[in-house]
Design brief:
This protein has four helices and two strands, in the order H-E-E-H-H-H. By secondary structure, the chain is of the alpha+beta class. Helix 1 crosses helix 3. It starts with a helix and ends with a helix. The mean pLDDT is 76.
Length: 83
Amino acid sequence: MSKTIDKFNDVIYKIRKEVLGKDADKLHTVFTEDIVILASNEGLTQVEQCMSATSEDAEMVYLARVKPLQNMYAGDIVEKSRK
């Protein structure tokens, strides 16, 4: 199972690098029957922290950072990467 997790994490690193321009520092992956739980320890970069000074700026960082991740894990980009 460890090899499967390593291969899965490698795919996730590659996709995140392609989509966001950087990958996660560390991933923790757990496979259950039909669900994959993926946890990342990454936080905001120093630039993103500076940009998040106001609530409007924090919303901009959220839209630039979280929304692409949500879309990525929704399946569209993952399916394209398999081709």
